[in-house]
Design goal:
Blueprint lengths: L1 H14 L7 H15 L6 H22 L6 H19 L11 E3 L2 E3 L2 E5 L10 E9 L4 E7 L2 E2 L25 H6 L4 E2 L6 E5 L5 E7 L6 H22 L7 E2 L6 E8 L13 E2 L6 H24 L1 H11 L10 H4 L15 E7 L5 H7 L14 E9 L13 E6 L2 E7 L7 E6 L6 E3 L12 E9 L2 H11 L29 E6 L2 E8 L8 E4 L4 E3 L5 E2 L20 H4 L8
């Protein structure tokens, strides 16, 4: 009977063209060892070939085990083989833009990758943070828990100054100990030049890393565009008029706003229509956002390629409303080819400077508290992080600038994004209205290059502007956004910007005239020497640049200087 069964098995083995026992195992082990050895520097052709061989031998082995019970070695080989197949499937999109992995700063970089926060590998602790809930122990608002453990939630100084018009106060900046307790996975340039982070609630964020070695040609174009304008961006950021920076009582720090809104417009604009913010009438600000427009236009191409659903959602949300999109679609297409013609829809941009020339106190206030932006459109917003300063102007790590991103408004699980990387642009798609986010405090013993700093461009849509567009689309209101803005007043010189003998413009009877600064013997202070021979005393705020008396404010070389972008952009690292 046994001989009969054995003979039957041989007949079936011959019918299915099975090889003798062990041969398939050897082949599988050979392919597995070869693939594992080539993981560090592997091509798409190798992955396809090995996967095909694995699948072929797995089918043969499956038929084989129908008639011959598997041995321990065969079971171990099958398990190893299955794990290798899974690895190939997980990595199948890694080589979409090239044949092999790249390295950046001596570290291997994968083109694409998906990180599942609720997976076996990444299990950060959950955060609960409700800034409105009363803490019975401190009798102050703000309750924070990591897991089931209550932790201290230090309050950001800026967020206690006023109640504000949006969101809730106050906001917290957790310590480095709290950040460490969360055990958040770090997302940096080695995670993958396009990294998707998936939360257990189904939310997905996408992070892009663009540098000179990016395998995606669009990401490489983004970095090359930044290199062309990098020196000018640095110069413009350092020369923004101080009075244009706004203290952020919602999240802390200071920012420079720009874009279309219903507040902070100019005199003469219709309050029922959106209009361009007054900051944008300054040439320095305008040119800075014009450069940013070209970069975000290229980023729209990358988003369309890698995140097609998110790009389609953006178009559907903002609809046909080019007059309310800032930067304008036309300016975003400046750096694109004629056949591309894409743009990213948004209403406003906020510029933040992180880490430049800050003392200990101002650095604490410049950090961003953990918050969500209640007034933003609930959808994917685009955040950009540009490396500035440092060695050769390539930027680098800046203290306390990693970004903590949570799955929902009151916390949950999270990841930690490295936003300041040498010679690398970082940008992320995230829902700032629905996701808690803010700076991660670094350990006190960490060392950083003090010359490095970061320029953050935060693009977002506003609910009130979107509501106007919906009402206009339904015929309940008419009119277009007001973009025709000009600087209305001249800017006075500050003490230290003028000396005796300087030719200036002086204010007399609310008008500006050409004058010379003089000092009278036995008299304190400076005096104007007018062209008609009269002499009057200088008062506070009455001394202006010599250009002010001969030109209108929006054309004045002092009050509204301009730079020729086509000349400056040819200098990669402009030093002025």
């Amino acid at each position: 009977m046994k001989r009969s069964n054995c003979a039957a098995r041989k007949v079936y083995a011959h019918k299915y063209q099975l090889r003798p026992r062990g041969v398939d195992i050897w082949r599988i082990e050979d392919h597995a060892q070869t693939l594992c050895a080539e993981k560090a520097n592997i091509s798409i052709q190798v992955i396809q070939h090995r996967t095909l061989m694995f699948q072929r031998h797995l089918i043969q082995l499956h038929h084989h085990h129908q008639y011959f019970p598997p041995r321990a070695r065969e079971i171990k080989a099958i398990q190893s083989f299955t794990a290798t197949i899974k690895w190939c499937e997980d990595q199948k999109d890694i080589f979409e833009h090239g044949n092999q992995t790249a390295t950046h700063q001596g570290r291997m970089v994968r083109p694409t990758r998906t990180i599942k926060i609720n997976g076996d590998r990444h299990k950060p602790k959950e955060l609960y943070y409700n800034p409105d809930e009363l803490n019975p122990h401190t009798n102050r608002k703000g309750v924070m828990k990591v897991g089931n453990e209550k932790v201290e939630a230090p309050i950001h100084g800026y967020t206690t100054r006023s109640k504000g018009q949006e969101g809730c106060r106050p906001r917290s900046i957790p310590s480095s100990d709290v950040v460490g307790m969360l055990n958040a996975p770090l997302v940096d340039e080695t995670s993958g030049e396009v990294t998707r982070i998936q939360f257990k609630n189904g939310r997905e964020n996408t992070v892009f890393f663009a540098n000179g070695k990016s395998q995606c040609p669009i990401l490489k174009r983004i970095f090359e565009c930044f290199q062309e304008y990098g020196g000018l961006i640095e110069y413009l950021c350092k020369n923004i008029p101080p009075e244009l920076w706004i203290v952020d009582s919602l999240a802390g720090g200071k920012y420079l706003p720009g874009g279309v809104c219903f507040r902070n417009g100019i005199q003469g604009s219709n309050p029922k229509l959106p209009f361009l913010r007054v900051e944008c009438c300054h040439n320095i600000v305008k040119q800075l956002f014009d450069i940013y427009a070209q970069i975000i236009g290229l980023e729209a191409l990358a988003i369309k390629k890698h995140c097609g659903d998110e790009y389609a959602e953006n178009l559907q949300t903002y609809g046909d409303a080019d007059d309310c999109i800032f930067p304008s679609p036309a300016s975003q297409r400046e750096g694109q080819n004629v056949s591309e013609g894409l743009h990213w829809s948004l209403h406003q941009v906020a510029l933040r400077i992180m880490g430049r020339e800050l003392n200990e106190e101002s650095e604490r206030l410049q950090r961003i508290a953990w918050h969500f932006d209640q007034g933003d459109v609930e959808g994917n917003q685009l955040l950009n992080f540009f490396p500035m300063g440092g060695k050769d102007g390539k930027g680098g790590r800046v203290a306390d600038t990693d970004l903590m991103v949570f799955e929902q408004k009151y916390g949950g699980q999270c990841f930690r994004l490295r936003t300041t990387i040498e010679d690398t642009i970082v940008f992320i798609l995230m829902n700032s209205a629905e996701q808690l986010h803010g700076n991660a405090k670094d350990e006190d013993d960490c060392e950083f290059d003090q010359d490095c700093w970061s320029a953050r461009f935060i693009a977002f849509g506003r609910k009130n502007v979107l509501d106007f567009l919906n009402r206009r689309r339904n015929g309940k209101i008419s009119g277009n956004a007001f973009w025709d803005i000009k600087l209305k007043t001249h800017i006075a010189l500050q003490n230290g910007e003028f000396n005796v003998g300087d030719r200036v413009s002086g204010k007399f009877s609310n008008k500006l005239y050409d004058a010379k600064l003089i000092k009278l013997e036995g008299k304190h202070g400076l005096y104007f020497g007018w062209q008609d021979g009269r002499v009057t005393k200088c008062t506070k705020g009455s001394v202006f640049s010599r250009y002010c008396s001969t030109s209108e404010p929006h054309k004045c070389k002092h009050c509204n200087p301009a730079f020729k972008l086509e000349v400056r952009k040819k200098i990669p690292n402009l030093i002025l």
